[in-house]
Amino acid sequence: VIITSKEAAEEVLKINDLECCSRPQTAGIRMISYNCKDVGLTPYGEEWKALRKISVVELFNAKKIQSFRYIREEESDFLVKKFTESSPTRSPVNLKKTLYTLVASIVCRTVFGINLHECEFIDEDSIADLADAITLIEKTHLFSDSFPGRIGRFVDWISGQSKRLENVFSEINTFNENVLDDHLQPERREQESSDIIDVMIDMMSK
Questions:
Q1: 77-109: per-residue pLDDT in tens?
Q2: Does residue 88 fall inside a structural domain?
Q3: Which range marks the domain in which residue 88 is found?
Q4: Alpha carbon distances (Å) from 66 to 34, 104, 152
Q5: Residue 100: left if φ>0, alpha if ψ -120 to 50, beta else—which one?
Q6: Is the pLDDT assigned to residue 1 strictly greater than 70?
Q7: pLDDT by residue (tens digit) across 161-196?
Q8: Pick from 69, 147, 164, 178: CA 20 to 30 A from residue 86's CA?
Q9: What is the mean pLDDT of residues 53-71?
Q10: Which PANTHER family does the UniProt entry name for this protein (predicted)?
Q11: Long-range CB contact pairs, 176-184, < 8 A, 24+
Q12: Using CA atoms, how far apart are residues 58 and 60, in angstroms rounded to an integer?
């Protein structure tokens, strides 16, 4: 549906805002969000309000964001060091990949508590592949998304689409399980500041 008039925009964004503010729940979206348990993908309602409150109060408050400042500084220093090392030899630098790695490193340490330069189960290259896999699942539109029911699921199965989607998702799920297993290890090295997974595990244990 394409909104092309002022009246239609008002109808969607103001009058019927609650009915139109949730994202489409495709098979890929449901899979990657574990049946829409993600705050960004949960349909608008009481559950979404509760998740949003947790995100604002516990996960992304000003104090928590400030506590991650040292991570941003360390990763930025590491980037400058790499540039400095490649300068004498005048080696070409893939700026797009380098900046992507910087962002990925900061996000991984902040959210998952893993250092891409030291982690055993994922590195700088595989995290990029994982991000591509997430994008692929989000963009994938199965036949059953338009024609739900047995016929739609049968077409997904016979075309191999659902199997391909499951194979891609298994990589993401394996990563998530590795992150959780790492956090639940009793001998896990204590971090300077608890990451977002630490906070969520702590909230679940209360």
A1: 999 988 888 888 777 878 888 888 899 999 999
A2: yes
A3: 78-119
A4: 30, 18, 48
A5: alpha
A6: no
A7: 899 999 999 999 999 999 999 888 877 777 767 888
A8: 69
A9: 87
A10: CYTOCHROME P450 71A9-LIKE ISOFORM X1, CYTOCHROME P450 FAMILY 71 PROTEIN
A11: 178/121, 178/122, 179/112, 179/113, 179/114, 182/113, 182/114, 182/121, 183/113
A12: 6
In the chain, the number of structural domains is 1
Query: 41 lies in a domain?
Result: no
- What the block records as the tokens of 168 is 């891609």
Q: In this model, does residue 63 exceed pLDDT 80?
A: yes
Q: Is residue 87 part of a domain?
A: yes
Q: For 189-198, how does the pLDDT look when each residue is reduced to its tens digit (9 = 90+)? A: 777 678 888 8
The one-letter amino acid code at 76 reads S
Asked if residue 91 is part of any domain, the answer here is yes
The residue to which tokens 């330069």 are assigned: 117
